Amino acid sequence: MESFSEAENVISSSLIKRILYSKEIGMTALLLLSLLGFYFFAWRNARFFIVPTGSMEPTLYPEDMIVTLEQSKYQRGDIVVAYDDGDYVVKRIVGLPGDNISVMDGALFINGKYASEPYMFEPMDYFIERPVRVPDGRFFFLGDNRNHSEDSSLGFIAGSGERVRSNPYAYLGYLDLIIGKVHFIYYPYSRFGWVRSYPLINTAGQ
Question: Distance between CA atoms of 60 and 119, rounded to whole angstroms?
């Protein structure tokens, strides 16, 4: 039995060496890596970003290094990186064209219906009493750390006085300026893993 086991180990070791040093296998692996690279970088426009603030806590933290991929279509609940007012922002889409967005009693309402958001850091301490209808080509975005986030709410907060500008819709994002959906945290290693979106589907029209 011992001789048979030793012979088996020698054969296994020899097979592993042939696989590791095989030119054909090496070329195949290189081809697969090239195809994956083409898919993610050329086809899906993979981009790398560092989360700048705590506005997306507890989902994303400052200094998290993230990967985005371009989508053919974006959904409510997607976390995206978008170009906004001369800078990149990392926020969650809560409203798409045609949606009516409001905030009452610390909760988000989409098209007049309560939207469950278990990822929020804490309930919102502001109101958007008059529903905001999202125009074509735009989207309403919020941070998960709602009370410490510069987002679309700033143009519409009830009674905010100086915080409401002459053009509140300037605080909405443009769909064609979305860079991509956040899919992955690659650093720090303690937070290495996928970033899941939470679909906001408990709304009218779904």
Answer: 11
**Residue 73 among the catalytic residues:** no
For range 98-123, the mean pLDDT:
93
Per-residue pLDDT for 11 more than 50? no
Helix (H) or strand (E) holding 30: helix 23-37
pLDDT of residue 28: 54
Active-site position among 5, 91, 102, 153: 91
Helices (H) and strands (E) in the chain, counts: 2, 12
Q: Exactly one of 3, 5, 23, 55 is catalytic; which is it?
A: 55
User: What is the per-residue pLDDT for 196?
Assistant: 85
* Annotated catalytic residue 91: yes
Cβ pair 172, 156 in contact under 8 A: no
pLDDT in tens, 121-141: 999 999 998 999 999 999 999
Burial track 122-139 (b if 16+ CB lie within 10 A, e otherwise): eebebbbeebbebeeebb
**How far is it, in rounded angstroms, from Cα 66 to Cα 61?**
10
Tell me how crowded residue 40 is: count the other CB atoms within 10 A of its CB. Answer: 15
Q: List, for residues 184-193, the tens digit of each pLDDT value.
A: 998 999 999 9
